[in-house]
Amino acid sequence: AAAVRASVTRALDLELAIMLESYHDDFVARLRRIELVEREQLGRALALSEHRYVNAVELAPYIVIGLDGALNIQLFNAEAERVTGFLRDQVRGSPMVSTCFPEDIREEYAGIFSVAANGGHPVGEAWESALRTRGGKLRRVRWHLAHAPSDQSDGVVLFAMGRDITEENELAERTRQAEKLAA
Prior knowledge:
Helices cover 58% and strands 17% of the residues. It has 6 helices and 5 strands. It has helices at residues 2-59, 78-84, 88-91, 96-100, 103-117, 166-182; strands spanning 63-67, 73-76, 127-132, 138-147, 158-164. A hairpin with a 5-residue loop joins strand 3 and strand 4.
C-alpha cells in the first residue's frame, strides 16, 4: 500500500507540474499579447502627438528656432527657412547668434540668449532685432524667448519664436510719410 501511495503521489505531482507549466506558458503568452497591444497603442499615441507637434511648429506663421545649451540651432521651422533663406540642413548645429544676427549686435545677443538658455530671461518679454538673411539683407523680427529645461545634453533648452515685422514697419513708415505730405 505504501508503494502504491508513493507511485500515485508521484503521478499526481507530475500531473500538477505539467498543469502548472501549462498555466505559466498561457500566462506568459497573455502578458506578451497585452504588452504588444500596449506598445502599439503607445506608438499610435506618440505618432499622433508628433504629428500635432510638427504641424503646430511647421505650419505656424512664426519663426521657431530651438537651441541647445551651447546656443546651437537644433530646430528650424519652415517659416524660419522662408524668412532667412537658410535651409534647416544648412543651419542645424550652427551657432544661432553668428548665423542669424549682424556682426555689430552679436555680442549683445549672445549674452541675452545665454542668460535665457539658463532660465534667466523673463518668458514672454518681447524685443525686436535685426535678422540677417542668407543673402545678407536685414529683416526686423519681434522675438519671444521661452526656456525649456532638458535633461539631454543635446536637447532643446531655449525656443526663440519670432514674427517678421519688416513689411509692417515699412508700411507704417510709408503711412507716416504720406501723412506728412498730406499735412
